[in-house]
Amino acid sequence: MEKFRDVVNTWTGSKSTNLGRLTLFFLLVSSISLAQSDTLSGTVYGFLDGKEEPLTGASVYWLESVIGTTTDAEGEFKLYRGKNHKTLIISFVGYKSDSILNPIAPINTVLKASNELDEAIVTGRTKTTAIDRVDPRKVEKIGEKELLKAACCSLSESFETNPSVDVSFTDAVTGTRQIQMLGLSGIYAQMTRENIPNPRGLATIQGLTFVPGPWIESIHLNKGAGSVVNGFESITGQIDVNLRNPASMDRWFFNLYGNQMGRLEANIHTAIDVSKNWGSALLLHGNVMETKNDRNNDGFLDMPLSRQLFALNRWEWYNDKGIHLQFGVKGVHSDKRSGQVSFNHDSDKGSIEHWGARNTVNRIEGWMKLGKVFLDKPGKSIGFQLLASHHDQVGYYGQRDHNATQNSLFANFIYETFLMTSNHKLKIGLNAQADDYTESFNSVNYDRNELTAGFFTEWLYSPSDKFAAVAGIRLDQHNIYGSFVSPRIHIRYAPDENSVFRVSGGQGRRTAQVLAENAGIMASNREFLILGDNSDKPFGLNQEVAWNYGLNFTQYFTLDYRDGAISLDFYRTEFINQIIVDRDSDAQTVSFYNLQGTSYSNSFQAQIDYEIINRLDVRIAYRWFDVHTTYSIGELRVPLVAEHRGFVNLAYQTRKYWKFDGTLNLTGEKRIPITNSNPAEYRLEEFSPVFATVNVQISKTWREKFEIYAGVENLTDFRQENPIISADDPFNPFFDASMVWGPIFGRNVYAGLRLNIK
Known about the structure:
The protein is an all-beta fold. 2% of the residues lie in helices and 54% in strands.
């Protein structure tokens, strides 16, 4: 069957603004000196049906190296070249890969369809993660092989082998996972799906569980200020998820998974070549867990009972005039039940005999992306993105109800062109976001409607191979918060072929979803106090606004003929306003109010990647977080964030396609919210202990078609003792299941299989 091909993709990716920061922002852009380095450039074409067409998204990388990139909408690429880089590999799904020894720029390569001749054999291994040395932003691409190192069940579990993102539970009852980035909650990192903001709003946290791991083709992780093209909500970074599509998928894919907890999961994917220009993909996922686990004997389920069904259907069309159309629809049904083992969800709701919680979500979303590349005008393209979604959730936590609905519409128009020369590339565009919320908690309504329209421009300046800068600014008008400006900048400088410096800075802002983002605290008897000003602002609170500054240095090296890299990152986030979640002032309440004072996060990370012997990769990292916020009782270290963290990942592959992966996470002590006002038996220590967790996995692949895998999460069986305060009496005022600092379930053994049919 002739494989459908994707040949063009144009998508990329307060009223008073601090004048000093804006001035500095533009001075940085205008005061840059130029230099020179070694970069290989070229164009990749595909030959099909007697015609040559530029290939968008073709992989270009150095053999046995972490250095790689992908071609742009015109099939063009720029790739850093070190003195030990000899063999260039170029590949694209549906085409025969090409290898070039000692390439000389400019490269013009034509790939032939794989059905026209036998597949070539290219020796060597590509790295499972790669960083583009040429991009001014430090963007780490987490590939499919990296994601397979752990049998991740959803996007929220896809970062187990990546030291830049932390994963934890929101509470000891609902089983909801959350991420942290740069020492701050994942709500400050903008999530996008193929450069469209999603999930967000009510789904900001739990929406990560609505993206099954096997659906993910790659993840692009950018720490610090994101691109203005994708909106103003990025503060600590951007995580862009690329899902499987008709061009990159096999004809059929099957995945079965089961674990010790009793969770069973199945995935079925299929890709269909409808015609020469049309392709379609169907992704189906289902999981069920009906086994009751209470390994710590506290009377509460360690993990919720659940049933989830997800389905996604996407279509793609292109023609030889540079027009590319994508559209699709996704549906979600999720039902999670948690609480005491004795709780009956059919008869005990609202009971004062047994405590239980339930959260049911039904969600549907549709999207469309339309773009055109002007083939006769290099660098010029236009694109349009559209996303509409409906999210409905019904839930209760003990005797408290939380129900919400969100209807959203997002539209984005992007125009891209060179300015006189290819050294200057300009993006300009308009976008709009509309969100209509109907939300109630404890019979109190928090309905709201937000409309935002914005204009943005982004300028890429790359006068030489040593230097590049991206400067962007956007102006937005909000129906409640008025107009505001969001500037951002990224600078890259490479003094020599093995050293790269990057500097970034910018402002982001967002509307806090006070209830949805803190639903884990509903698994307690704390009184919720939202201290707004009774205005028409959401919850009567201001927008969250912050500046983020970052400095990154990467040193590449070659030792014993194998490439490695050492990376040092430092980022600082300063909040102008933040919605404070205060659990310290009173152990029986949680208060939400605007920041009155300072709030900041300092984040440092050191990381080394190296292949210490043939086919044995090691990744070692250390992270330090200094995160403080001003509460009503004074400035305190933010709770449940470890100041020190260590990370080690080992991955080995034999020539017979056995793979062995192991990850060690060392977590330093975390400050626990103050419980001094509780009776002695309900008080907690001030800090959690230092602890370590180990995850391991073994897999075997046959002919790149069939794979079996088995692994153990939390091999040492470390568990937080007594994670629920007053578990024996959940209806007294001191009951609290939200003080989670470590694993709840303990050791978890799993196994599964994957089958690909091309």
